[in-house]
Amino acid sequence: MSSSSVATPEVTTKITKTSLFAKSESTGNLESLLLWLNNQGDILTSLLVHFAGVKEEAELVQIKEMDDHGFDLIYCLLSSDEGVMSESRVNFDVPLKRWKEARPKMLAMRDEAAKALAINENPNLPPFTNPPMWPEQALIITLLVIQFLTFVLPESSTLPLSVFSDIRAVVGVPFIKFSYFLLVVAHVSEAVWFWNKLSNQGVKGGDLRKWVYWTLAFGLVVSGSHYKRQIQVARIRDIYAKVAPTPVSKSTSTAKVGKGRVGEGKKKQ
Questions:
Q1: Is the confidence at residue 252, as pLDDT, over 90?
Q2: In terms of residue numbers, what domain contains 187?
Q3: pLDDT (tens digit per residue) in 70-83
Q4: How far is the C-alpha of 75 from the C-alpha of 58, rounded, in Å?
Q5: Helix and strand counts by DSSP (H, E) for the chain
């Protein structure tokens, strides 16, 4: 395993085929696996710490490239200048013979790292932060606005009001009212279930109320996605608390765990 520092404007994943692989062999399943892994910051952080031996706190960990002998992890150390990326190589214990061997190999390495680092599946969540505006959140707001406008706007034959009149004529006012009823029932049910789950996990007080409020407003499609991101943040925090007890300048509660762009920076000296 080796490490170097490079400046990379954008994190991408590349699959390198060598002579050991048939050129015509499909990499579709492997690309799906790497896409999933590159959105699992806690898993990649555990691989970086356990297999690459990088115990200094890092964020934006991604798999940059994979071949039959291993893969390259690219990440930003919190102690480095903004935009400066470091890179580490992780070699497989036995080279792969086919791409289909990559999935069980990566999942086995994930499990080995989780066991070695004693990663808690249900860690204590960090303090609640408002979810970012994601597409699913914008979609729900858009649907609610359309429902409301369809229900309250007067009849009209001119655009754009005629669109809402046509919708109302097709689905009927009773159905629009019923859709609101279904939405309220669904969100209340989700909020009750989520409240019970978070309570059992030790979340209480203002944080618990905020999680429930967000679920009532937007449903689990928003609060559930944000919960998964916060679980990743909590696991990353716990990993570094075990391997690097001395804190660095930035807080892991704001660590970036998803895939994202990194501004071009200067190469480390």
A1: no
A2: 135-243
A3: 999 999 998 888 77
A4: 6
A5: 8, 5
Could you tell me if 72 and 64 are in contact, meaning their C-beta atoms sit under 8 angstroms apart? Answer: yes
Q: Are 190 and 215 in contact (CB under 8 A)?
A: yes
Residue 218: phi and psi, rounded to 5, are -120, -10
pLDDT tens column, 116-171: 999 988 888 889 888 876 666 677 777 777 767 776 666 666 667 677 677 777 77
- Token readout for 29 is 């399943």
pLDDT in tens, 90-127: 999 999 888 888 889 999 999 999 999 999 888 888 89
169/112 same-domain check: no
147 and 97 in a single domain? The answer is no
Distance CA 131, CA 221 (A): 11
CB-count burial class (<10 Å; 0-12, 13-18, 19+) for 32: exposed
Q: Which residues of 205-219 are buried (b: 16+ CB within 10 A; e: fewer)?
A: eeebebbbebbbebb
Percent of the chain whose predicted confidence (pLDDT) is above 90? 35
Amino acid at 99: W
According to DSSP, the residues that pair with 74 across neighbouring strands are: 62, 87
Q: Provide the 8-state DSSP code for 58.
A: E
In this prediction, residue 73 carries a pLDDT of 94
Does 188 lie in the same domain as 101?
no
Domain total of the chain: 2
